[in-house]
């Protein structure tokens, strides 16, 4: 079983100039602007940050997102990823941070750090 985002230790994550403070549940853009995330977007982002540069299947994300409540054909994960991309990608049409890996899932492509 994969740990849920709530199981993570509160702290900060950095990626491509972005900063997520899990204690405050705040995401700041590279230019310091606070970006609002829905609960679902926050859960997905933390799931990606905990698994950088690794392909994560839709099923893994669905387990993190809603547990067993979603059917395999449920598109809510794809919708949430689309919304998250609109907020963090320079171009949601040509995403560079969250790549779709056909037939496998999604991959958060950039390095992630935990500043001290």
Describe the model.
- The chain has 116 residues and is of the alpha+beta class.
- The chain has three helices and seven strands.
- It has helices spanning 39-49, 58-66, 76-88, and strands at 12-15, 18-21, 26-28, 34-35, 55-56, 98-101, 105-108.
- The strands form two sheets. Strands 1-2-3-4 form a four-stranded antiparallel beta sheet, with no helix packed on it. A three-stranded antiparallel beta sheet has the order 5-7-6.
- Strand 6 (98-101) and strand 7 (105-108) form a beta hairpin.
- Helix 1 (39-49) crosses helix 3.
- The longest helix is centred in the C-terminal third of the chain and has 13 residues, at 76-88.
- The relative contact order is 0.20.
- The model is unreliable at 1-8 (pLDDT under 50).
Concise description?
This protein has 116 residues and is of the alpha+beta class. The chain is built from three helices and seven strands, in the order ββββαβααββ.
Features of the shown structure:
116 residues; alpha+beta; 3-stranded antiparallel β-sheet; 3 helices; globular; disordered N terminus
Strand-helix topology:
Blueprint: E1 12-15, E2 18-21, E3 26-28, E4 34-35, H1 39-49, E5 55-56, H2 58-66, H3 76-88, E6 98-101, E7 105-108
Helix pairs in contact: 1-3
């Amino acid at each position: 079983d994969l740990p849920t985002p709530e199981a993570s230790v509160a702290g900060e994550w950095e990626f491509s100039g972005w900063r997520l403070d899990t204690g405050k549940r705040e995401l700041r853009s590279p230019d310091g602007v606070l970006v609002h995330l829905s609960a679902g977007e926050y859960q997905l982002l933390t799931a990606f940050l905990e698994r950088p540069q690794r392909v994560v299947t839709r099923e893994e994300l669905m387990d993190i997102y809603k547990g067993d409540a979603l059917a395999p054909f449920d598109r809510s994960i794809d919708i949430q990823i689309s919304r998250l991309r609109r907020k963090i990608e320079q171009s949601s049409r040509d995403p560079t941070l969250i790549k779709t890996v056909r037939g496998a899932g999604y991959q958060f492509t950039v390095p992630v750090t935990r500043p001290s």
